[in-house]
Design brief:
With 90 residues, the chain is α+β, with helices and mostly antiparallel strands. The protein is built from three helices and four strands. Strand 1 and strand 2 form a beta hairpin. It is elongated, with a radius of gyration of 26 Å.
Length: 90
């Protein structure tokens, strides 16, 4: 697989593939993107598409993690006084 390299301002290198090369080697390019590499796909000498890895989902939140560490009083659920509602611009 013949890929050219684009040297970016911050000293990083990004691989460039033509559309024909990308179609022929799509599985390999996807594997490289999954490893974190960004690959440009060019029509002729003009880059037109960037193949980048998707962000991995973060950890799942655990419900009730802080259960029992604090309490919410009943006054929390009462309507706000008019002057405080006005301060919020409503």
């Amino acid at each position: 697989m013949k890929l050219a390299n684009l040297f970016l301002a911050k000293g990083t290198v990004m691989a460039i593939s033509t559309i024909h090369e990308a179609k022929t080697n799509l599985s390999r390019l996807i594997e490289r993107a999954e490893r974190g590499e960004e690959i440009l796909i060019a029509r002729g000498k003009q880059p037109v598409v960037r193949l980048t890895p998707l962000k991995k989902p973060g950890k799942k939140r655990k419900l009730g993690l802080h259960r029992g560490e604090f309490t919410v009083g009943s006054e929390f659920f009462e309507p706000l006084p008019p002057e405080e509602v006005d301060a919020w611009g409503q």
